[in-house]
Amino acid sequence: MVMPMAVRARTITKCFGDVIALDGVDLDVAEGRIHGLVGPNGAGKTTLLGLLLGLAAADSGRLEILGAPQGRAPAGVAGFVDGPGLYPSLTARQNLAALTALRGPDPGAPGIDDVLERVGLIQVADDRTRGFSLGMRQRLGLAAALLARPRLLVLDEPANGLDPSGKRQVHRVLTELARNGTAVVLSSHRMDDVEALCSEVTILATGRVVFSGPLAKLAAENRELDYRLGTSDPDAARRLAADTPGVRVVAGTGLLIVRALTPALDTLVTALVQGGIAVRELTPVVSPLEAAFLELTDQQEAAR
Ligand SMILES: Nc1ncnc2c1ncn2[C@@H]1O[C@H](COP(=O)(O)OP(=O)(O)OP(=O)(O)O)[C@@H](O)[C@H]1O
After folding, report:
1. Does the keyword Nucleotide-binding apply (predicted)?
2. Which atom belonging to ligand 1 lies closest to the Cα atom of 207?
3. In angstroms, what is the span from residue 205 Cα to ligand 1's centroid?
4. What are residue 228's DSSP bridge partners?
5. Using CA positions, which residue lies closest to atom 1 of ligand 1?
6. Which among 37, 47, 59, 304 is the best mutation to test ligand 1's pocket, defined by most ligand atoms within 8 Å of the CB?
7. pLDDT digits (tens, 9 = 90+) for 115-141
8. Which end of the chain, N or C, is surrounded by fewer C-beta atoms within 10 Å?
């Protein structure tokens, strides 16, 4: 089924004085997708998210949000960049109440306690946000966004400062939103988070898109990866690896590091098992996304 597009951006350019923050950026995000935006510092992620939120306008290009051209008030869009704006002297509950009052009546909106519960802040609902940690502020920002019943949720580094259980909770909330048709666009410097959450990713480098598409495509593209290989017989495994076409032993004595494309790695694993050698560990040293990120962003830097 083809889902309607929540974001359709074409050749978006945005400059700050002499700095070209976005340079001909295209972006497509369908409803119900969680789309990761990654890139080195200064790549343009926050600028792009700000445009999606309607906080600024592009200098040129075409941007459609939820089917409407940029310039109209982006109803159904919620989120934050550079951390959520909160009143420090108010409690979490009061912050959300103030926001609800500002937005005006919405009979279908979830209750304040409901969203606080969903992001795991109900226990601290009556604490002033002045004392909140970064992770708690991020979660309160997400709760505020949930109140708006977003069809497009835009989050800048939502996992910043979250402990593992907070992260799991936020992942759960975002996955549930996407299941119900909300498009989520988030930036992150954590490739493991992006891989855990997103089905598709855009890699930006110096304001340009160097990759945009399904995460699976990055893994499947012709890119050799280094794998950590632990077996029941490291010496025999090393010999077999060295004899397998397309596999290079990069390092290691006990735990080997081998470099290969997926088909060659499959051949090695089959040979190990047929040779009676148990495979105890086989993990990429860096994930396919991280490897692609480094390679693509390095290429972009080199081309400058
Ligand atoms: N308000 C602004 N005034 C001047 N320059 C800006 C402004 N906002 C962003 N820039 C510049 O635009 C470029 C892109 O910045 P942006 O914050 O979008 O990058 P980013 O990918 O979000 O970086 P980070 O990962 O460090 O948050 C940078 O060179 C930045 O210095």
Report:
1. yes
2. 14
3. 12
4. 257, 283
5. 16
6. 47
7. 999 999 999 999 999 989 888 998 999
8. N
Read off the pTM: 0.86
How much distance in Å is there from the Cα of 207 to the middle of ligand 1?
9
Class level of CATH domain 5-219: alpha beta
Query: What is the model's pLDDT at position 161?
Result: 84
Which among 44-48, 166-170, 284-288 has the top mean pLDDT? 44-48
Give strand pairing partners of 227. 258, 284
**Contacts of residue 49, Cβ cutoff 8 Å, sequence gap at least 6:** 37, 79, 81, 154, 155, 156, 185, 187
The ligand 1 site (C-beta within 6 Å) comprises: 16, 19, 21, 39, 41-47
Assess contact for 184 and 214: CB atoms under 8 A.
no
The pLDDT tens digits of the residues spanning 162-198 come to 888 888 889 999 999 999 999 999 999 888 889 989 9
- Tokens, residue 2: 């083809």
The residue among 129, 110, 235 whose CA lies nearest residue 176 is: 110
- Domain range annotation of the chain: 5-219, 221-303
- 221-303 and 5-219 share a CATH fold: no
Going by C-alpha positions, the residue among 167, 158, 96 that lies closest to residue 127 is 96
Cα of 204 to ligand 1 centre, how many Å? 12
